[in-house]
Amino acid sequence: MLHALIMAGGGGTRFWPRSRQSKPKQFLKLAGDRSLLQQAMERIGAMVTPARTWIITGASYAVETARQLPNLPNERIIGEPCGRDTAACIGLGAALAARGDAEAVMLVMPADHVIEPAQEFRRAAHVAEQLVLENPNALVTFGIVPAFAATGYGYIERGVALAQRQGVSIYRVGSFREKPHVELAEQYAASGQHFWNSGIFVWRAATILGELRRNQPALADAVERIAAAWDTPRRDEVLTKEYAGLGRISIDYAVMEKAAEVLVVQAPFQWDDVGSWLALERRHPQDAHDNTVLANHLGIDTHHCVVVGDEQKLIATLGVSDLIIIQDGDAILVAHREEEGNIKKIVEQLKARRLEKHL
Amino acid sequence: MLHALIMAGGGGTRFWPRSRQSKPKQFLKLAGDRSLLQQAMERIGAMVTPARTWIITGASYAVETARQLPNLPNERIIGEPCGRDTAACIGLGAALAARGDAEAVMLVMPADHVIEPAQEFRRAAHVAEQLVLENPNALVTFGIVPAFAATGYGYIERGVALAQRQGVSIYRVGSFREKPHVELAEQYAASGQHFWNSGIFVWRAATILGELRRNQPALADAVERIAAAWDTPRRDEVLTKEYAGLGRISIDYAVMEKAAEVLVVQAPFQWDDVGSWLALERRHPQDAHDNTVLANHLGIDTHHCVVVGDEQKLIATLGVSDLIIIQDGDAILVAHREEEGNIKKIVEQLKARRLEKHL
Fold this sequence. Notes:
Two copies of one chain form a homodimer.
Chain A: E1 2-8, H1 36-44, E2 53-58, H2 62-68, E3 77-80, H3 85-100, E4 105-110, E5 114-116, H4 118-134, E6 139-144, E7 155-165, E8 168-177, H5 182-191, E9 194-204, H6 205-215, H7 217-228, H8 235-244, H9 251-256, E10 262-266, E11 270-272, H10 280-283, E12 292-294, E13 297-303, E14 306-308, E15 314-321, E16 323-328, E17 331-336, H11 343-352
Parallel strand pairs in A: 1-2, 1-4, 2-3, 6-10, 12-14, 13-15, 14-16
Antiparallel strand pairs in A: 4-9, 5-11, 6-9, 7-8, 7-9, 8-10, 16-17
Helix pairs in contact in A: 3-6, 3-7, 6-7, 7-8
């Protein structure tokens, strides 16, 4: 049976002030009138029932997750007592899925990406599921054809072409490449041989657990102990204790870069990780002066800005260019667009100055 | 007896969004923890009792005036049914003051200037009062030694020096000069012969009424009719009817430029009409990066900005320079500092787009 694991653990800082500690990116409506988490759930709705869908999120986000996904059974929302990166999250999800279904196949994806159209995503996911059913040892990842020379993503160098199925190309993975510097990113983007690593995977739960056991035996033991205690009164106690002892490691470092049977499916869909405020320019149309406006905005002589605000507020701009202007609740950000990578510094400073109420 | 007329009619647009239609500049705390109107009232408190002080404001501002000046008797707050510039306002004030005191001397001043120290202002006002008592026909105006080549003010060219009293220099007025272009402003500022016209005056009520009768007989008739009806049930009706029929004309055009006996007292005080957001830079200290901050502000790589906001809000800035950033209630303004003169365009656009709720 196909299960889904939606990883919704992020507490990102790049969307401050809209994204606060209490409401990180996956809960925001950054593309359309549904949150990214809600869109992720809808995307797989036609493939996986809610009863076989797991959302792993931060413990403090469990309530918001439940509020946004009223059709999801409560027991399918798992709150991590602390963040331990993707290897722990995936290990836990796999151990829980395998408990009730030894043949479980898992579709793993982050909650905070934009993927369109959903139908194409499901087509590719079906192809990946078939690959895994035919080749039980396979770890299948989804590669995105680079749209530009991004330095913010990891890359997958493709190996030999294996097949085309339902119009979807399948390759063996040649190698995983870390986030490159600019010149290397340009080479990758131009090579025709590299994909962006989307962080979306399909595999058998038993297979990924085996790989974790081989590469991260302590982690594998821990998630097995959590799964064993899951239906007992000790569930929370064991989860908290075991999780605290885990190291922070991504599934790429922990497993993918070392595994033998890794395949990549070339995504037939559009993908955007909506990594920062400027990503809104890709998701929304611009006005005649190149502004991207998601606000009640009055602009005079205003060019190439991103303006976001609450509906009942007015943001007026006069004689300004290249700014990111964000109003959300009790906070306002005005940043030069070239500084978007430094918005996290604002969040750090707020912590340092004990202005947590604005986080 | 000395009376005071504080002109509080302004509905200026240059302080949007803090200054709204419902709360223009004189009601704002732009210098210190008291509004400009409250500061004006305090300034004259040691010279004139509330019972001889008149505030003439817009009818819609009468309530806010009363709220800000709880010690002022209600009947001393006069709401103009419509704005008719300073000649009408001063004529009305003079007619009302003369009703109860034929020898009334009036100190006339706008409500929305910063004047410091108040003691020096009172010293100059006392000198002016003495001049008027000795020379009943005199119209005394206050001239400000130019601090820079301002193009936004009218100028007074001084004539012959008359005297020094209590350290205050008194001149006959040579001529009034309209707001100059830049080159002329530079000549005036360098000449040593020109003052800024502060719009502050001292004269006998009977004298200014006589001058109005000679130069603006219809206006003089109208304010006399209003004064005659003041203690009757027809007060409001007559005020509304007569005011509507008045022309818009300033006291400078109507009287000062034509009168024979016009003197100018050189102000021994600091004066600032706080004409726009950038004026705050003169009224408040700057931080290490030349920012003027009246807000809960977190700035990283932020230079030469003016940042104003409500206390409970946070304004964060990152990598920006030369901006005016104002948050007030439901509105935010982000403007380049060189555009401060165009903030009125925002207000015009709000009217044109029927966004009156933000005015």
